[in-house]
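step 3/5: co-fold with heme C
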Amino acid sequence: MRVRSAVLVLVAAAAVAAAAFWFMTAPQPLSAAVLPDKPGDAAKGERLFWAGGCASCHAAPGAAGDDLLKLSGGVAITSPFGTFHAPNISPDKAHGIGNWSTLDFINAMKRGIAPDGSHLYPAFPYTSYQRMTVPDLLDLKAYLDTLPTDATANQPHDLPFPFSIRRGIGLWKLLYLDGETFKPDPAKSEAVNHGAYLVEGPGHCNECHTPRTALGGLDRSQALGGAPDPSGKGRVPDITSGPGGLGDWSAGDIASALETGFTPDFDSIGGTMAEVQRNMAKLPAADREAIGEYLKQVPPVAASKP
Ligand code: HEC
Ligand code: HEC
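step 4/5: write tokens
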């Protein structure tokens, strides 16, 4: 009898835990009420496409020139949790996102949710893209709609259990996805706010320059203070205004490095930053200058060593 009641208690506890898991991991999509009634502007969206570096993950590996606009997917992204394969996001209706509504797209970018309601993995850097405004996302979607279709099928990710269970990402999101859109600081200039938006939102600079916790979330107390390189070799540098970061660089030096790929010491920018820099070079000069002005205002972090 005692054994039986203990079993019942365990079964009940497991049911409560399962219900709590189900409840806590439920996707929280945005409703159509967020949509403005004006259509997106593809020309403006092109600028966000380069700022967002979408081609770096979603074009075929090694793509260059016009092939960067063919978003067939295929780049493998290695992480401590397994290997992700960037999917096809071309306007192909069968293999890409050609059948997605604008709201589907906004939910992917701001909430990390696919149209069927499942959670997307944060290897897709929506922890940064969530900061983008809805009108900007409409523009970006309008631009993506103009790109060539491609019929490459998606490759499944290579993830061990429990990371293979998408539902669990709901718990991770409770810790690391706040759903906030970027808010300009009225005390700062328009250029600094524009730079902050590009860095924190589309540019997703934190995804490489900010260290991560053991659970793979961004440790925002060390924002932009440098981090181990995900490739396992070396470090992604500190780009705060501190002595271990860009303390000796002027805002103009930063803008020019993003344009030319050369640091003020005439070193060439390499590693994974080379591709980011090539994307940044496609932006109007004012965007790079704004990024320079903002980074010169980012406070050094405690770990920022000279
Ligand atoms: C660092 C690499 C990376 C970058 C940069 C990136 N993505 Fe992705 N993206 C991914 C990965 C990986 C997935 C797959 C996530 C999953 O399966 O849960 C993905 C998924 C998506 C999806 C969902 C597709 C589907 O079939 O479910 C969309 C939409 C998307 N990305 C759009 C974009 C856009 C737009 C940009 C640029 C603003 C962008 N991504 C930049 C890696 C990236
Ligand atoms: C995909 C990862 C990644 C992303 C995203 C990224 N960076 Fe970098 N960044 C790097 C790496 C790696 C280096 C070191 C390059 C080297 O060793 O040549 C670097 C170097 C730099 C440098 C040169 C610093 C120095 O001390 O030499 C600047 C400036 C910089 N990044 C700015 C940015 C900005 C601004 C953004 C966002 C728009 C950004 N990065 C996004 C990986 C990244």
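step 5/5: annotate
Residues 190-295 form one domain.
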